[in-house]
Queue: 2 jobs
Job 1
Amino acid sequence: MSIPNKIPPFRRLRGYAFDPSLSLRGDTAFINNIVYNVPWESNLKPGPIGEYVEIIDFDPTTGRHYVPLNLNDVNLLAQDGLEPSESNPQFHQQMTYAVVMTTISNFETALGRKVLWAPRRLEDRGKYADYVPRLRIYPHALREANAYYSPQKKGLLFGYFEARPANSTLHMPNSFVFTCLSHDIIAHEVTHAILDGLHPSYSEASNADVLAFHEAFADIVALFQHFTFPEVLKHQIAKTRGDLGAQNLLGELAQEFGSAIGGYGSLRDAIGKIDPVTKQWKATEPSGEEYGNIMEPHQRGSILVSAVFEAFITIYKNRIKDLLRMATGGTGVLPQGELHPDLVNRLSTEAAKAAKHVLNMCIRALDYCPPVDITFGDYLRAIITADSALMKNDVRDYRLAFIDAFRRRGIYPQGLKTFSVESLALNHHTPLSPDTSKLMEILADFLKEYRNNIMYESDRQKIYEESKKYITGRKDENIQGLHERINIKFEDNKEFQQLTGLVFNSNWEELGIRTSAKTYKDGAIGPSFQIQNLRVVSRVGPDGNLVNQIVFSLVQRSAVEMENGAFKRHFDPAGTEELKSSQFFLFGGCTMVFDLDTMALKHIVSKPLLDTAKLKKGMPPEIDKDRIERQYRYQQEEGVMHLSEHSLYFGSGLQNKMNEPFSFLHH
Amino acid sequence: MAKAVNTKKITHAVVRMYCMGTGDCFIIKFFAGKKECFKMMIDCGVWSGKKEHLTTYIEDLKSYVDNSIDLLVVTHEHADHVSVFETCQELFTKNFKVKQTWMGWSEDDRLSKIKKWKTEHGEKKKALAMAAERLEKTVNEEEEKGVTKPGLNNKQIMGARKHFSLSLKSFSDLHVQGVAGNYKGALEGMRIVKKEIAKDKIEYLYPGNIIEDLPGLEGVKFYVLGPPEKWGEVEEEGGGEGESYTHNKELKGGDAFAAAILSDSAGTDTESILPFEEFYETKISSAIDLYKEEENAWRNIDNEWLFSAGSLALRINSLTNNLSLALAIEFEDSKRVMLFPGDAEYGSWCSWHKINWEGTATVEDGKHFTQDLLRRTVFYKVAHHMSHNGTAKRLGLNMMENKDLAAMATLDYGVIAPGWDSTMPNREMLSELLRKTKGKVMIMNDNDLFFDFHGQEPLPAKIEEARKKMSTKEMAAFNKAYNRAPGNLYVEYTVKA
């Protein structure tokens, strides 16, 4: 009998909890150096190059390659990796690896499945896309105060720059500041990459919220990861005497970056800022009009960040009420002086739990978001839906806390008759006709087969290929793909068009929809549409409630031409080499959630291409003029007004987001 | 001549803007009655243009001023303000007399502080030029090799990259003499003015200077507003919400970038720009092998860092704009003011309100004298071709309250740098200007200019509409004062003293 192989669950790696600047401050140095517990990768090569990422430390600005870090070196294994150091590029590799892997692992825990990067889409629509196994990470790629995720290169590019500090006690003027040493910046950028894998159309700025959402979501993840470092959490709880709504390190983002360039704007202001008069830190009090007035993507994003943070504070306060009563003999007023360490421990546990729940809610909500044109209101609905599915009973009023925080900032979802937990959840859709129900059931059956095939697969490439097979079909295995099934089964099905808001009829070309590159059985053709992100949602709620769902998104686009700011006609996108400035694509899409226990369509959230109101009245299908004009107005006017000077001079407009949208966004 | 009327006192000025293309060239003639008393010239540049074409304008200019100028003002060293001195050099160096030349204090190369700064700033400009050149080359190579293929939308991606490169090139051309492989330094037009036209006899002005009693200019005073004397103010390009016309991020950093570009091109002294000790470097590793894999070349980043030059370009641009010599010209009796701010941006506008004016009478309602100058302004040369931060909001346009206010702008979509048309004109500023002037906005060439974003409302119609707000009397006066020459050679406007 062989001795059982004991693979360690974690690789312990030292790193900064925030960034190097806090190691220079006496009061924070000891909490800034922490050990990250990174999921163990058996096959980790020097770089580090693992299953998810490949770190290539090439600095094109100097033409230098740095020696790749071998984390399996015995000396490093024995002492939790390299010691934090700004002057050692190998530590930079380690820090980047540790934070990226921690973030990925948080996503996988919340989603209950593997993280896949966005595939490389190809010009050849028949081939469609290439699988991208690993995200590329370049820790020293730029010489400027910027770092970004490149959707083109499926990579993270980090910059470094010379400090021009507002406060030269924290920074030696003219010393280098490295963005790849900041937990917040790394977490932020890798979240962009993960989100791009889940919702590739979210880099299309079709309304004021889309880019803001990308930024805000990345900030939320970075922010709530702070709460997963127990030492930091305890220290800050003790320091703020349990009041996490007050100024503390946990609620701040990218400190060094901010102080080095004199303010990273929204990152620091989301939750509160120093009052210029009193010089005291003050939490930002929402006025209720932010959402209607603030349009610049970062500032707009910070509305969402502050809403989520407020929800967290409410939840945390609810959770510690009893502890405070016990600790104060019912008065609720804490005695002067330091808190009892036991109380600090208990409060920290509650804060960590609350933060974990909030982060999970925020991540899980992604499964219930529309695939295109997201708004903050849609996101709120997705949060409530995801949580309601998992937790039948909201005993701690988590959902209320979210709704209230969003409401206080003027964020309301569109098209709701009432504003409550029930109406926000995406449960309601009109019962389907028997025919359509039957078709849905067949679809659910097919999806169940997919689920069974993929449930226990842990190889990410196999998951990708298996999903692709079920989407596009395989002749040799006699699998008719989801794409074909939808196109054929629902052709001219009015109810399905009404539900999805997408074009599945025989005159798609008149509505500006391309003909699909696929030919189906017997040479049949159909309108082009994409199936994005076919996924299994399998979760167990805290009260033992099982969620057993399959989710996928449909995306379709219609080519429209404008005249004098109004819709003129559709054009044929296939025969168009370059778009005129009056031409653009309107994206529509829907996310469909199938419940495998009842074998029925459970939720659907749609951004319709079709004018569903007219469709309902039995009128012939046409593209929603209102949405056309709204997107056009945004991309031509409102959005342009709030572009940075950098984007105005060097960008190619909101309709052409092709050249590094996130790089532009960060300028 | 029995009456005691002073016949020498200036009664009006005619401002003439030559319409060569986006860029400034002004002649201002001061009259006492019918007598021509003083001829002033401000800048002579255009974004681009061939010699043959520009010669027509300059020959007209020369005959208009009878080959002689009393005062030449060069606001700042940008091609669109000095280029024609180079293109039509001999027209200016031969048979053309300039009696006096003014520039901002920051042009005084004799001062060691300025010399030192100019060397540093010059290095940055050089870096910009080299980055622009390298990026242009790189992007062309990329296109040839088809590096973005076979990815989806590769044509659009390439298009966006080319657009970036073109915009960067235009910023480089604006600041730096034609590069073509080797950097030549500051703009030739500026050198020609200094050495060959002014022959180094230049008066350098400081904010707070007040100049009066120039021979022939009775009853006219010059107030120097900018360039500011503090670097902090020079470097400030946008004031944020409510201050300038769009929110702008601060553009800092860029020194490390410039250093890398320069050392890379010179091939020497790479040592000082390296962030790490040499022993961390390697030439052989598994990571390098991965980076060099042919099928993964689309993920390489050899040239991505060159795009950082965009921030550098904007920073240098704003800084140079803020070094504009900004003048307020006051008619003493009526207190009416003509404002020529060059291309001053927010930082400069802001500094004007901190000037400690000496020898000016206290303003009645206790407001700062600069504010008083602004509210007495009846003629405004719109700074920076109507861009968003060329005109300050709270500390600028909001204070221009005079009902006679008229404005001239040197914007022409026919001849403009790529990328500029997205920021000029700024719609919010323009509509405010139209409202305040009741349509007395004179644009160099308003063909192809639209008031809205989707080419629906042509600007000329919008201007006409705004002019309907004028009373019949105002309208008649405006029509009399305003003149556009045939062939759009120039636009003239008469300002009453």
Job 2
Amino acid sequence: MNALKKLFGGNTRQFGMIFALVALILFFEIFTEGRTLTSGNVINLFNGNSYILILAIGMVLVIIAGHIDLSVGSVAAFVGVCVSLFIRDWGLPWYIGVLMGLGLGVLIGAWQGFWVAYVGIPAFIVTLAGMLIFRGANQLVGKSNTIPVPTDFQYIGSGYLPEFGPNTGYNNPTMLIGLLGVAFVIFSEIRSRRNAKKLGAEVPEAWVMVLKLVLISGAILYATYLFATGRPGTSFPVPGLILAVLVLVYGFISSKTVIGRHIYAVGGNRHAAELSGVQSKKINFLVMMNMSFMAGLAGMIFVGRSTASGPFDGVGWELDAIAAVFIGGAAVTGGVGTVIGSIIGGLVMAVLNNGLQLLGVGADLTQIIKGLVLLIAVAFDVYNKTQGKRSVVGMLMKNFSRSNEIKADETTQTTDVISKGA
Amino acid sequence: MTSLNTHSDPLILEMRSITKEFPGVKALADVSLRVKAGEIHAICGENGAGKSTLMKVLSGVYPFGTYTGDIVYQNEVQEFKDIRASEHAGIVIIHQELALIPELSIMENIFLGNEPTKRGVIDWAEARLRSTELLARVGLREDPDTPIKEIGVGKQQLVEIAKALNKSVKLLILDEPTAALNESDSQHLLDLMLGLKGRGITSIIISHKLNEIEQIADEITIIRDGKSIETLNIKADGVDEDRIIKGMVGRTLESRFPDHEPKIGEVLFEVKNWNVGHPQIQDRLVCKNSSFFVRRGEIVGFAGLMGAGRTELARSVFGRSYGRFISGHVYKDGKELQLKSVRQAIDAGLGYVTEDRKSLGLNLLDDIKATTVSANLRKISKNFVVDENKEYAVAEEYRKVLRTKTPSVEEGVAKLSGGNQQKVVLAKWMFTDPDVLILDEPTRGIDVGAKYEIYGIIQKLANEGKAVIVISSELPELLGLSDRIYTIFEGAITGVLDKDQASQESLMKLMTSARKSA
């Protein structure tokens, strides 16, 4: 009993969430009679949720800095429709369209960041206004019509890694990415352990590290196997690849760089940060600008996937993204949260959605269940904060504090997450 | 009024062997307090001695069960579970930080949480009638509809008392009521307390102003290091200020400070004709034409009452982080500096340890190592990437040098005691390697042992050739630590005294009066 408690009594919401995720996957795997962990379903799940997960990455930074962004769905839709029009009406190649879309996202973000950071209007108000403005703008410029995009543009939303190399029966690039991921995880774990030892810091026992590496590597390899053995023509999806790159980049920025530290500092105690020389206005501006940039990207991926932009794209996305971030361990008051945690949170919601769909549960009941999960996840965390015991799981996760040694594909399974407070 | 000096007076309150522990700190150890009905009872002690904690135990802020010992009030053992319960029994505490809502009117504040109702609806006519009467009793001539934010601190204090009277208070507790008041407001308040005594209301007053205590109190209980030392009867025992200080300090003043041989060099840092406006209120100056200088290796004290503008001066110099800059010049090593942001100030070699650790100095979500490097991330970063190994090494080094008590530098700063938190904040600023270090109330809320260590660190920094400015409300601290002391009154520097000329009296005189001579 005690041992069980030690193993499962994780002391942060994120440990809880990894287990919730694994448990959910197993639950649905059993009750859908094996239809959950099939190549087709996992690929679908990724394709259908990548844009929400991308939004969650931007959103967690916004929330760590102590703000919120309600406009992301509308901004995504507006950027989507503009890019569709650029390509259709001006005959631009798809990549110019993508660049212009990203630029438009940055411009919109600068607009919102200006009001938040330099005028001092709460982000809630600014982005509530933005939600109305850009939804209206989407319908205005698109005349509330559906605007199709060419096939080559669709690649960013629904493409797969190409086949090349010898015929192994698997998709080669997917396998390559999986193996690189495993190598990277093992290498960085050993390196950080060596560094910690050199500095005389406390390191977990060797068996803990080995167990951790076996679990993570196993998860990555299993995910790789699923992605590489889909029906012909499918493999690791392009939106998943974009997501993986973003997780790596933003995980790194948030945990290892000066600007990342500053974001946490501003959210944790703005006055203390300012008196330590942090330019909080600049940080707030950048965080809000980045959010709209990523919303633009998510909007384009969605348009690529659905082959056309429409007047109701992105409705409700802000809520999905915000829910993912809070399930993933962020605090409403700012200063707490991780990119990886938010991805896990987003995946919990995605798996729940997908599994309930496979079971044939209606949309009405699905919403009720998702709402309850959000509530329980946060309640669980609040409860855990009053406990604060270290567990085996805590030790497993310890060295991954604020880290990002992860590939997006492995997160479907379990793994290495972490928390600021671990 | 009950007669004094007799030992047969009935007790209204007896606190028996109260012990209260916080994680890692014993704030109160076996404290006893006996207050007679109808008297004014003073509680004296140094900062951090446990006075406020004791009053929080009494008023139910720390509920029954979180402390050990008995509270006997009106001959019954009480088990207050919150402030409401103690107020219901007639015990009202007025905190140093007033609990008034600035946007609401005087009347609304008086009746907040205690609104007179008629069939469930607030009876404003009744409220107005009663508030007019209450305001007359405390001698406040203001329209009850005036918003609290439009009246001064002295008047706000009176509103608090009116609020207490409305709750039919029997035991009124005032925590440092005159700390932020000028002399005439203070006198009015003291007279009012004597008036309340005349109506049979018992008061407990916590104050650092010993002359006031001597003036109004009947008995005095002295608390030191979380223990009750003695209870004296002012008249019977012929108590004077020296006697109180002896009880409070309990040891010779010299031993509170490490030995220090100052090595003072040439002028390093100078501020001239510094004028700063209030951040919100137009036409109000928080710094009036202030000029001062600090020499290399010198520890310079800034003395002033709360609200005199010491912090405002320091923060406005530190990269204009407070108020509206109007005019003035800052020089370091004879060269004029333009410090328009905190970043510039830090880069120019200034450091500022804030007065309020928790709300201004620390991100309580951070751990020790992240806090230590937070003001100088560049030093441990390459291409904007933080080197976490260096971060750990730096934090570990400061932990050893400053002897911070913690299991590891990965511990959250929120878990540390006040003294150790302050050491982490000092480490943070030492790591920026400033030439000029401003310390605002560096030992507030820190126990005596840690204070001694902090003093040692400050002296060591000065001996390294830094210019150190110490702002403090505790005059003994300034006298023991500083080589020179400036006094500030209402935003203006009113004098400067060398260590050997300065005494509590001479400082207090300069701190409470406008400039007489240059």
